[in-house]
Design goal:
Layout (H helix, E strand, L loop, with lengths): L10 H5 L12 H14 L9 H12 L11 H19 L6 H6 L4 H5 L4 H22 L15
Helix pairs in contact: 4-7
C-alpha cells in the first residue's frame, strides 16, 4: 500500500484552527500552539525567528554563501518574499485584538511592517506578552508560566 502523506484538502488545518489571541492574552498558549502548528505545516516557521531573514539578507548583499551556493535569483527573492508574507498573514490574522495594545506600546505598524517582517511582528507580540507577565507579577496575579518548548527546526 502506497501511503500518501499529502493533505490536499487541508483537513489538518481545519481540525486545528488558530484561535484569535485574546486581548488579555489569556489564551496565549493555545494560540501559540496552534500558530506553531500552522507555520510548520506551511513550512514557514523559521520566519518568526529572524534567522532566515539574516541569512537571505547576507546572500543578497554578498552573492555566494559560505557553502558556495550561487547568488539568489529574482525568482528566489520573490519566492522568499511570498513565503515570508504568508507567515506574516497567518500571524497578523489572529492578533487583531492586541493591535491597539501594540500601538500603545510603541509599535509603528507602518514602519515595522515595511517589508512585512514576520520576525519583527513576532518580537513585538513577545514584548507585549512580557509586559503583561511583569504587570501580573507586580499585581500578584497568578498566571501560568508554563511554556511550550518547540524547536525551530523545519
Amino acid at each position: 500500500m502506497d501511503l500518501d502523506l499529502h493533505d490536499p484538502d487541508n483537513d489538518a488545518l481545519r481540525r486545528f484552527p488558530i484561535p484569535a489571541l485574546a486581548e488579555d492574552l489569556s489564551n496565549y498558549y493555545a494560540w501559540q500552539h496552534a500558530l506553531y502548528f500552522h507555520l510548520r505545516y506551511h513550512g514557514v516557521f523559521y520566519f518568526i525567528t529572524g534567522h532566515e531573514q539574516s541569512r537571505w539578507d547576507l546572500r543578497w548583499q554578498c552573492g555566494e554563501d559560505e557553502d558556495g551556493n550561487p547568488p539568489p535569483t529574482k525568482h528566489d527573492r520573490k519566492n522568499y518574499q511570498r513565503r515570508n508574507m504568508h507567515a506574516y498573514a497567518i500571524l497578523f490574522s489572529k492578533i487583531g485584538s492586541i493591535v491597539p495594545a501594540l500601538l500603545t506600546a510603541g509599535w509603528d505598524g507602518d514602519k515595522d511592517s515595511f517589508g512585512f517582517r514576520t520576525d519583527l511582528l513576532w518580537n513585538r507580540v513577545q514584548e507585549l506578552r512580557q509586559r503583561e507577565q511583569d504587570r501580573a507579577a507586580a499585581s500578584g496575579t497568578n498566571q501560568s508560566s508554563r511554556a511550550i518548548s518547540l524547536t525551530d527546526d523545519e
